[in-house]
Amino acid sequence: MKKLIKVTLITLTIGFSASYASGIHGGHGHSHSAPIKAEINKTRVQEIATQEVKRLIINKKIDSSWSAIPISNIKKTKYNYNNEWVVSFENSKIKEKDKQTLYIFVSNYGKITGTNYTGK
After folding, report:
1. Which end of the chain, C or N, has fewer beta carbons within 10 A?
2. Measured between alpha carbons, how far is 107 from 100 in angstroms, rounded to an integer?
C-alpha cells in the first residue's frame, strides 16, 4: 500500500510539473511578458523632468532655488542608437557658471536616463 501511494505521488508530481512547464497551468491564456509601452509625448516629458527636479531637491542633490525655475528648452535628440528627450533648466541664481544649466534626459518611454550640467 505504501508503495502504491509513493508511485501515485511521484506520478502526480511529474505530471503537474510537466503541465506547469508547458504553460497549460490554469488555462488562462495570457503571456507573462512585460507589455510594450507606448512612447510619451512632449507634455509628459515636461511633467517627468519637473518631477525629477523636485526629487533632486528633496534628496539634496541640487539647491532648492531650482524649484522655481521653468523649463528653458526641450528637444528630442539621438544618443548612440536611441532617441531621447533632453530637458534643460537655467538657474542664474547659481554662482558657478558651469552649474547654471541643469539637463535631464528622459527616454522615449518616460524613464530618467541621466541628469548633469553638461548636456552630454
Report:
1. N
2. 23
